[in-house]
Amino acid sequence: MAYLTLKERLLIPTYDNPKYARSGQVVIDMEKCNGCGNCAMICPGGALYIAGIGKDKKAHLMEDDFPNCMSCNDCAAMCPRDAVKVSQTYDFGRFYKILHRGGLSAPRKF
Amino acid sequence: MKERNRGDYGSMLRRAFISKGVDMAEKLEVEEKPASEDKTGSMYKWEEGMDWNPVERIILERRSVRKYRDKQVPEALIRRLLEMARFAPSAGNSQSWRFIVIRDKKTIESMEKYAQLRAKFFMFWLNWRTSPLGRLAWLYSQIGIRVLRNDLHPIPHGALAAMAEGTLKLFQGAPTVILILEDRRGAAKPELDCGICGQNIVLAAHSLGLGTCWVGLVELLKYGIKWRRKLKISYPYRLVEGIAVGYPVGNPDGMVERELHEIEWYENSQWKTVL
Ligand SMILES: Cc1cc2nc3c(=O)[nH]c(=O)nc-3n(C[C@H](O)[C@H](O)[C@H](O)COP(=O)(O)O)c2cc1C
Ligand code: SF4
Ligand code: SF4
């Protein structure tokens, strides 16, 4: 079972070291995306940007700065073309280690 | 034996049964209030795998809205939302909340400006990536995170950085802002009561075509005496959260994927973990 070790309790992660703290990740379906910019407009982390011209105008995920994407999936809800979706949730180590969680899932009808 | 004032026949009987250890519910014929057809509770009967009912859909489709139209929300509609808050459950029915509604564009903008200034100030000391203090800021940050482990959790830490840069606005330009204050003398956990009444507001708002966003970063306003005075915040009240309300741009609401959480389940003398 997952738990926090004493060492983990005492160590605060270095936020810009991907080993201890990794932002959320999204996948953008380049076929579907038309670069409308809806997702980038509402992204709370400023994690998305639009680049390219004409047919190549697409949304992209920022790769450098931490932390940006908080895997909220608000971009997915906003996208008119169903082109963007969180593929990996944010993941912290040490003191902020994520405990007792499973994978991503849409609401399930029990 | 002389019965006290409130000792009607029912309570005398009840006391008699309790003293004999008899299950009241079995022995007493409780007169049941007839179920009314128009109450939501009896409108939807659960069957396994059934479709979402409207209440469930509102809960599942609510998303935080971060881009609002310029149009102001009618006053009566905000009043209606606040009415939802009044009927939220609270510990000991202590209703330890207080609301401040701000609908003045200039004031909202100056709150945003102040928050950005504060964020810049904190980031000067704490953001080792941008601060001229460099490694010293890293050291302050490590100490700060230990002291304010919730406020400086990586996500709000990042939000503060984004706010300092100007990419994240406090209220995202919402035309109405509801501030929730906790009465610190409330029963048990007043801060929790504030969360519950706020969620009533938020869910009702989304069911009426509005968009909302919780704004925990109103925390930044607390550092300004000017704002505490202007918003008339003083003991026993403490600013807890803000809720931005307005008409959304586009269609931000919708169901999304989220993580499953492990749930410990004890039944038939056995533990199991369900996801
Ligand atoms: C107590 C609380 C405080 C929040 N503070 C902020 C905030 O300051 N700024 C912001 O953009 N979002 C804020 N949020 C919104 C969360 O980021 C959002 O609820 C979360 O990412 C889940 O996304 P969803 O609301 O679309 O389901 C807050 C939410 C809660 C519950
Ligand atoms: S909202 Fe969807 S279609 Fe528009 S830019 Fe973002 S991913 Fe592309
Ligand atoms: S999941 Fe949320 S934070 Fe991440 S890119 Fe989408 S909108 Fe931005």
TrEMBL record, chain A:
User: Which Pfam families is this protein grouped with?
Assistant: Fer4_7
Determine the domain of life of the protein's source.
Answer: Bacteria
Q: Which residue ranges does the record assign to the 4Fe-4S ferredoxin-type domain?
A: 24-53, 60-89
This protein's UniProt keywords: Iron, Iron-sulfur, Metal-binding
Which SUPFAM superfamilies does the entry link to?
4Fe-4S ferredoxins
Query: What GO annotations for molecular function exist for this entry?
Result: iron-sulfur cluster binding; metal ion binding
Q: What is this protein called?
A: 4Fe-4S ferredoxin-type domain-containing protein
Organism of provenance: Candidatus Solincola sediminis
